[in-house]
Structures are given as C-alpha cells and as structure tokens.
C-alpha cells in the first residue's frame, strides 16, 4: 500500500517533473485539488497532491511513468459523475484529468463503430454522430465521459435492448501502472485470440490502468421512436407488465420504473402533472409498423394489470421532455428536501424478484425517519434508492448506512448483486467478498497484483478488501 502522504521533498520533485512535462496543466491549486477529490456521491472528499490535465495517450503515459518512479498513486478522472468514491484520492497521489482528451478519432459508418478519446462525453458523441444517422445508446443519465463509463461498466436506461458498456466496447488503449501503453481488441465483431483483456479493463474502475481511447459499437437511429408514461396501482403490477413484455420477446428499448414518491418529486420539480402512482417510462424503437405493434401489445398487457392512461409522445421534443423529467429525478428529490445532500445506491436482482426487493425496502422506510425515492432500469432488474440527509447529521447518516446495508442483504438473499451499474469504488468494498466469496475475490486481487504490483493505480478501490 502506498504511503498516505507524500514527503514534501519528494512531492516537490515529482511536481517539478510533471510541470516540465505539462507546464501549467499540472495544478496544485487547492480549489482544483478539492474539485478532483470527490465525485457525486456522499463519500468524504480526499484531495490529490496534484492534478494533471492530459491531452494525449503519450502525456498520460509520461505522467504515469513519473509517478511509478516515485511510487506515487495515480487516480484517473473523467467527468466526476461516479457515486461510490471512485475518484477520491484516499491515499493521496496524482489525479489525471482526461476531460481535455475529447476528440472523436474515427467513425466507420459502414461497420457501425467508432474510436474516441476517453474524455468524450456521451452527449458530445451523439451530437457528432447525428449527421451519420448513427447513435451510441448507453445512457447512464449523467453526461459522463466515455472513458469513465467504460471504467465503471456503466449501463442505464437503454440497457434492456442495447446492453451495457461490456457489450458495446470493442477495443481499448490503456496505460498500465508502469507507463506502458497497450491496445486490446480490434474492430472485428468477434475474436478467439487470447484472453479477453478488453472485458478485463471494462469495469476495472481505474485500478488496473488508465483508459485513454475506446473503440465502440454504434447503432442506426431507428426509423420510428415512440415513448410513453403510464401509471400502475402497485410496483408488482408494473413489474409484472415488464416481465410479460420481455417474455413475449418485445424488443422494447427503455423501461424505467419510478415509485409514487419519485413521481411526486418530479411533478413539483419539472412542473408536470403525472398521476402520483408507481409509474413506468417506456420507449419503443423500430420501423413505423414495428413500433405500432409493440405499442399495441404492451398497452394490452398494461391494461390487464390495472394501468392508467398512457401519455404518448412521438415528436422528438415531446419525447425529450418526458425523458428530461425522468433524468431530473435526482435533483427533484433533493429539491423536496432543501439543504440536504443525496446518497444514491443501487442493486440488481433477477427481474422476477424485483417487486419483492422493492416492497421489502418500502416496508423498511415506513419505520424510518428518512425518506427515499426508488427508481430503476426495471427491464434488467436494476434499481436505485436516493436518500437525502442533512450534512453533519450523524443520526441520519447512520440510518442511511443501515438502510443501504439492508438493501444489499436483501439483494444478495434474492440472488442479486450489490451493484448493477454504480460499481464498487470505495463505498461498496465490504460487500464484494460477501457476494463473490473468498476465492473469487482473491483471484481478482491476484490479477491486480500482476498488473499493478505496487498498488499505485487508484489504490483503496474495488478489490482492496
């Protein structure tokens, strides 16, 4: 384990070397360091010793080599939208900010793929692709960087049809702990050539190397898109509708569940007037005829489960308005509790156990002084709970941790995972061994030790248990 504090003399020597490499793009300003020592989660800020704004793979490799020579930790930073303390410099070190590596390097429209630098954000990429008739479907909600999305194996609202980053990353350029640059994967759609290093680094959360370039699968923009919002008398009714939709093979693109409390917050925040019941946000992609058939079938299934009226949207501006309301759920919940800070946690269970898991947590909330909204990507059994706590309120913080523990215990009992998309980071370390067992965790740690023997890549995260 690296030392938590870098001696002043060594620190000044390393920073001098980094400034020789990057000039003013190596910053030790307190505000910059503070900004890069936290993400969107609740974990305490832990600022790095310096922040380096890299603009190329070669510069990243140069920074890593100098840090390796000084035995100093390296923490990759994308957009700072992670939630489990992934970017916090809990052992000090140098943060490499990749946000200036924001170029789309190539688009191969005929083959439906592209290659981008790690700092390109998903919105930026889709704006770039629009004139090609293509889009990148992974939508975690936040305008995260593609590098960060690969590092945390992000998914989001479209995962039920298009999969997660695991299925959509084809190749990577990675700087290892030594500063060596490797490239994994090719533009071929399949390969049997050796170990699948691409999938190893996707989801590694910066603990095995710094991802600097990503090759991605793309998809054609559908001929027709239709979205809808529909309310149900219960979570079970909504989930049963989803299960039957998937069992019938309907290729629905998005299925999002928001509970009645989330809908109340959204109505107040986004000035909408949806019924304040457990609600599904749906989206259908395909041909005009195909979408019409999907809509008709899902409408019939929903009606059998007591659904209310569908609020349909086909024009792009109307669909955007509906999904903007869905994506505002985090800020809407905070607006209901002024002066609080949000703690968002996630879990994922087999879809047949989703209603049971949510109802267990709802029952626990009835006896809790804390409120929480529940929402999720119900098509794959992943959901989130958002707690709003007052900064410095120890009792509320302890209660939030208790409920989070109950959520994970319930999830694992039902055959699920402690995180469907947020990742482990520092916040869910203690659950990894409980989920996978000693043997699997030790295998993960052996991989970490082989690629990063001095534990310099984002130490204290993911497998540090």
Describe this structure in words.
The chain has 465 residues and is an alpha+beta fold. The chain folds into 4 domains: 8-99, Uridine Diphospho-n-acetylenolpyruvylglucosamine Reductase, domain 2 (2-Layer Sandwich); 104-220, 2-Layer Sandwich (Uridine Diphospho-n-acetylenolpyruvylglucosamine Reductase, domain 3); 224-329, Alpha-Beta Plaits (2-Layer Sandwich), CATH 3.30.70; 338-423, 2-Layer Sandwich (Alpha-Beta Plaits). Helix content is 38%, strand content 20%. The chain has 17 helices and 18 strands. Strands 15-12-14-13-17-18-16 form a 7-stranded antiparallel beta sheet, sandwiched between helices. The chain has a 5-stranded antiparallel beta sheet with strand order 5-6-10-8-9. A 4-stranded mixed beta sheet has the order 1-2-4-3. Strand 8 (169-175) and strand 9 form a beta hairpin. The longest helix is centred in the C-terminal third of the chain and has 20 residues, at 394-413. The protein is globular and about 70 Å long. The model has no long low-confidence stretch (mean pLDDT 94).
Strand element count: 18
In the CATH classification, which architecture of the largest domain applies?
A: 2-Layer Sandwich
Poorly predicted runs of 5 or more residues: none
Q: What is the level 1 CATH name of the largest domain?
A: Alpha Beta
Please tell me what the overall shape is: globular
Structural class: alpha+beta
Whole-number count of domains: 4
Computed Rg: 22 Å
The description of the largest β-sheet is: 7 strands, antiparallel
Task: Name the helicity range.
Answer: 25-40%
Mean pLDDT: 94
| Assembly state (oligomeric) | single chain
